[in-house]
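Fold it.
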Amino acid sequence: MGFFLTAPWFGILAALLLLFNPEIMNSRWHPAMLAMVHLLTLGFGAMIMVGAMIQILPVVSSQPVPAAAALSPWIRAGLISGTLCLALGFLFMQKISYYIALPLLVGAFLLFLSAVGVALVRVQKGSDSVFCLRLAALCLLITVVFGCLQLSTYLELSWVGYSFERTNNHVLLGLLGWGMLLIMGVSFQVIPMFHVAPAFPHWLSRGNSTFLALALMTSVIASGSIADSALLVLTLTLSIYGAYSLYLIYRRKRKLVDYTIRFWQLAFTNLILLCLLFFLHQMGFQILNEVGQFHLLLGFGFGLGFVISVMLGMLQKITPFLMFLHLQRACIHDPGAFMKLPNMKQLLPVSDSKWQFQLYSSALVTLYLSFFGGELQHPLLFVAAVLFLLSFTWLLKTLWQANRRYSESLPLTPDQPLAGKETCE
């Protein structure tokens, strides 16, 4: 919960940057754009992914993350301070901020990857989910290396040299490698488990993740027509995964209104549409007048429309689920306390999830319209920024209230008389 409660603050900061600097959407190289992107990817995305992986890995692999309780505060502190320093460095071009950010972020990710790597190596017989998580961890490591090389150029280390291709590879590996493979690995487990849907077939789960990794590495290593062909294969792979996932969700047995399902549907629809747009662009169709704007549309569409949509949906489900699980364990020596425990919908009400979905989907639609709005781009961006700000603020409020309900529901024990009043970490 420490990771989950921290993440919305970075989403709020990113939304504020867009609110007061709508001109940043004119270029991906704008200093405020670089700051906003890293607030979203490191501060929000990585914060939730790291927290979720520490909690979910034992579920999908039966192998706990070593020293998770001891390492988590250090990893979280490194991510928080490192991301803030990096964002300030981009905004004000202060070298001291880069010098501070680099060791903090590297240290946080190395601690996380070392602990998770040990757990993944210890798994004797890995499932399709574990296979994806191993590939995701490898992609994260390479992403961090590329990020360090690019950040080193801001420190005037001339032997490194800035490379636009390295930046593109950093983005591809971060979003399509670490982000996509992690989501795929988790989805293979949680969609059938939480929503009583059919299991992903082995040929798709293992085959798609393998093709994705191979196509991604080919696009990073190769150039010219080979790299373009690899990206088309990558697009086809993502489309198949997205379409089949929607099919499995449609076939689920639990047909109740579930906003986690709504977020999954929103995310997979975004993924398929983005793949279609990229394919049309590669075939010569002009989607937007400027190629730079089209790249921003793809980047924000994938990051906000797919990755963060999945995260928001999963938070509506796994947060109350894990809280209820921990409450049950806390009552193991007091069976009578079971009767007083709140259920999952009391910990995180459906109405809160409904507002989260409506705010975020409205923000996404408005952001997409801004790319095609012409002279109305800045007013539309202003509205989108306000909606994103409300959405991330609502997420913070929802998680904070759920955490408060959890803390108040902890049973009192003789040796811990104030257990019910402590904050869940």
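Residues 283-406 form one domain.
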